[in-house]
Amino acid sequence: MSNETMKKLLIDAMDKGGMTDNELRAGTAAIIGGESAFQVIPEASYRNTSNTRIRSIFGSTKNLNETELSNLKIDEEKFFNFVYGPTTNAGKQLGNSKTDDGFMYRGRGLIQLTGRSNYIHYGNLIGRPDLVNRPELANEPEFAVAIVVAYMRDRYKGGGFEGMKRAVGNPVTSTEQKKNELFAKYCAEGTFDFGGIPSNNLPALRKGDSGPQVSEAQTWLIAKGYFVGPTGVDGDFGNATEKAIKAFQLNEGLPVTGILDDETEEKLRS
Q1: FRET pair for 46, CA 20 to 30 Å: which of 15, 64, 177, 195?
Q2: What's the pTM value of the predicted model, to 2 decimals?
Q3: What does the pLDDT look like over 114-140, one tens digit per residue?
Q4: Helices 239-252 and 262-269, interaxial angle, to 10°?
């Protein structure tokens, strides 16, 4: 699913979930952008992670020798059952009670929902108590965005964007800068503001359309070196703008339709 479609789903989920604070909406979106780039993903395998790095993340692996840990991380199911097992500190904090809970309730979704107790709690909050029995639903886009909204409303207790990031987990250096940049961008542009352009059923733009959305698209095209007509950004989707979009689609390997659909818009924004 394209990033733009996921963003629209997130806006819908924020609206339906009663998230009306624009700073929290921007922060939630920025955290998702930094964590998963708006893609629903399961927790990655640690097969190719160094043993030193694994030991720094999972205290339960510190007593394993090099050979034992190297063999363990090759088997994804055994690895997650070991590090999130019911006898480990991590497993106990996550409410895992059965030997296979670690793998069953490993990280999923947009912010890596992990642990039996979280699947129970947030499943109930989004009206899907069956999430604990069907944890794979956390990777379905419509449920993934609902979980994020419920999670942030439940966990965030104030403190601005730094507090929002702490609500999700400990900071990771590799993603901090991206999150901060996105937060500033979304706040400035009002991308996820409450009461903005309705995100559901946004029509694709085509020749004959006009308005601020067309002007925005023309601005993107000009910035990428495409000619949209002698008057430049005028808000009218005419022949020149259609030709510009077709040329852009051709150059990007997209279907050449001359219509500004979600996929074309996402490419233009990038």
Answers
A1: 177
A2: 0.71
A3: 999 999 999 999 999 999 999 999 999
A4: 80
